[in-house]
Amino acid sequence: MTALSVSTSSAASLRADALVIGVAKGPKGLVVAPGAEAVVEAFEGTLAEVLTTLGATGAEGEAVKVPSAAGLKAPLVLAVGLGEAAEAGYDAEALRKAAGVAARTLAGVKKAALALPTGSAEDVEAVALGALLGAYAFGTYKSGDGKAPVGELVLLAERKGSKDAKAAVERAAAIGEEMNRARDLVNTAPNDLNPKSFAAIAQAAGKEHGLKVEVLDEKALTKGGFGGILGVGNGSANPPRLVKVAYTHPKAKASLAFVGKGITYDSGGISLKPAGHNETMKCDMAGAAAVFAAVVAAKRLGLQVNVTAWLALAENMPSGTATRPGDVLRMYGGKTVEVLNTDAEGRLVLADAIVRAGEEQPDVIVDVATLTGAMVLALGNRTFGVMANNDELRTKLHETATAVGEQSWPMPLPADLRKGMVESTIADLANMGERMGGGLVAGLFLKEFVAEGIDWAHLDIAGPAFNEGGPSGYTPKGGTASAVRTLVRFAEDTAAGA
Fold it and tell me: Where, by residue number, is the active site (predicted)?
């Protein structure tokens, strides 16, 4: 794991294998960003010219290496692009992305120093988080001698603000390490991660961090009447689980419930997915990974709010015991659902968990799920949809996501789309409705299971949860830990009464 630290040494005197600086696109060409003054001096004012000669423009995502100059202890200087030059300071997302590019570029290096513009503790946190996320690599199944992630990243800070900088780095580490835990879970092969093993991981984390963890196995789920989770998991040799991970603070004045879809592998069940649509379905538990990571991060940060994660874990497989299209499930809480498509399974496990979460009367329930392909068609691969039974809550979550650098978009829950879903002739609801607007129909289905008087929101992260393209910024190929930062910031704001 990459280590993070803070140093008040100058960029010239710190011993490291590489020194990272920021560059940007100025009106008259490349400019060197603040933080690299000692490096500019070592190059006797020619650094911008040298980098330009090597092809650097300062564009976002760019990384250009240059041998160091006399007077610098580090033998290599890496210039990373920040985009357009900003006299008033660079925004947090630009810093996160640049730090992420630097960390990924320096894979194999033992120690690197970051002399990026950090005029505030918020800037330090952005650089630290971006660097930690950019250094991430999943090598569990690799047997070759690939480059290891950069061993240590040292953030250079002014002596005057070093205390705040160290606190910012510690905070970034808590969030970044839990995001990387979520990424590991999403990237783990489904023959290794099933409901039982996921539950065991949650139990181990609970023991490590002092969280209360309760696991309902298939016997307890049957006794409790969790027909949705059981119905989805019936076809698999790996039985389902419902896991509760609870963090409580003695001074908390509010409580949050985060509910995550945890389909550890989704074949579609009897409504089998075609080839080309099932190869990445190990990622269908990304919602559960996100809420799990968020509650652990909340504990590590000591937030004054009670946060409970509910992991609805099942494997959706076809077999002689699998739920069939046309079956009726009696959900937790008593409602009945006619299953028209077994590949619309996420809403079934979430519904049970939402009802159970609601029994504890939290102030807000937020569910997170890779729920529908329709949301990907609507918003693309980098933006998640936000739905809610409260417009103010929907706006709050959208603004929170924007503030932490996650792309989201508020989506409606049109009452007219509910009609097709409630017209089952044999059950209270069908798990499918109109084909057009399928992502909204799924949200409307979940809304049916929210207890009266509880504010609820639904984040459909089907697009950004798993990156099938190449890495960029601090985002790797594979699991991304989508929604974790949004949930953590939402919990922080709730703790602060915002």
Answer: 273, 347
Closest CA to 348 of 386, 388, 309, 312: 312
Measured in degrees and rounded to the nearest 5, phi and psi for residue 240 equal: -75, 170
**Which range has the worst mean pLDDT, 92-106, 147-161, 302-316?**
147-161
Best CA proximity match to 354, nearest among 198, 226, 212, 263: 226
* DSSP SS3 for 78: strand
Contact between residue 406 and residue 379 where contact means Cβ atoms under 8 Å apart = no
pLDDT of residue 277: 85
Measure the CA–CA gap between 215 and 207, rounded to whole angstroms: 14
Coil/strand/helix, residue 115: strand
Give which of 472, 170, 471, 460 is closest to 290, Cα–Cα: 460
Q: How far apart are CA 474 and CA 494, in angstroms?
A: 27
> What are the backbone angles phi and psi of residue 34, rounded to the nearest 5°?
-55, 150
Q: Can you point out the beta strands (E) in 291-420?
A: 306-316, 328-330, 336-338, 364-369, 384-388, 408-410
Evaluated on CA atoms 215, 385, 458, 373, the torsion sign reads negative
The residues carrying an active-site annotation are 273, 347
Task: Answer yes or no: is 345 a known binding residue.
Answer: yes
Bridge pairing between strands 336-338 and 429-430: parallel
Dist CA 277 CA 346 (whole Å): 16
Residue 351 backbone phi and psi in degrees, to 5 = -60, -45
pLDDT band at 423 (very low <50, low <70, confident <90, very high): confident
Q: Cβ distance 130 to 89 under 8 Å?
A: no
Q: Quick one: 209 exposed, middle or buried, by C-beta within 10 A (0-12, 13-18, 19+)?
A: middle
Q: H helices within 302-418, ranges in order? A: 346-358, 373-379, 391-404
pLDDT number for residue 162: 81
| Range list of β-strands (E), 178-240 | 212-216
Largest Cα separation within the chain, whole Å, is 81
* Cβ pair 352, 280 in contact under 8 A: no
Determine the Cα–Cα distance for residues 163 and 157; give it in Å rounded to an integer: 10
CA distance linking residue 136 with residue 393, whole number of Å: 32
Does the pLDDT of residue 335 top 90, yes or no? Answer: yes
What gap in Å lies between CA 76 and CA 18, rounded to an integer? 5
The β-bridge relationship of strands 76-84 and 18-26 is parallel
Specify the 3-state DSSP secondary structure of 119: coil
Q: What is the pLDDT of residue 422?
A: 87
| Mean pLDDT (the chain, rounded) | 96
